[in-house]
Amino acid sequence: MRKVETLPNGNIKVTVPIKLRQNNSRRELIVVDGVCQHESTLAVQIARGHYWQKLIDEGVFKDAKELAKSLGTDRSYIARIIKLTRLSPRVTHAIITGVRPVDLTMDKTRRGIPDLWSEQERMFFKDG
After folding, report:
1. Strands, DSSP E only, in 8-80?
2. Domain limits, the chain
């Protein structure tokens, strides 16, 4: 079951239980509670993106292509979700706490997210 908790330092921890299974030379991620991998909530997608990037960084998967194959999805979907890890802390916090900017949707993230956090915040928050 997914779990969201506030840590003592004020950070928010989102937990999505999965199992990593090795079949011959192929690795697979299995969602334990049956959450659909294409679930559209931004908070879950951000958590998933950070986790997937961590798996690649730690060498569990060589790259997004190998991870996508394991998940049975396409590389572009993996890349799109991992791109959410570049959101500014302010934007990420707003999403996770449920006060996401009105203009921020998965569709909008597909069209591009500015690299600079200040530009992201101007884009998604009216008060900049």
Report:
1. 12-15, 18-23, 26-31
2. 3-124
Pull the structure tokens for residue 115.
């690299």
pLDDT in tens, 7-60: 788 777 777 676 666 666 666 656 565 444 444 478 888 888 999 999 999 999
In this predicted structure, the answer to whether residue 79 has a pLDDT above a threshold of 50 is yes
Pair of tokens at residue 97: 């706490």
Q: Which helix (H) or strand (E) holds 101?
A: none
- DSSP secondary structure, 56-70, as one string: HHTTSSSSHHHHHHH
| Mean pLDDT value across residues 101-106 | 70
> Does the domain at residues 3-124 carry the CATH identifier 2.60.40?
no
- CA atoms of 38 and 49, how far apart (whole Å): 12
- What number of other Cβ atoms are within 10 A of residue 27's Cβ? 18
CA 5 to chain centre: 17
For residue 6, list its beta bridge partners. Answer: 12
What is the Cα–Cα distance from 105 to 5, expressed in whole angstroms?
A: 23
Check residue 16 and give its pLDDT. 67
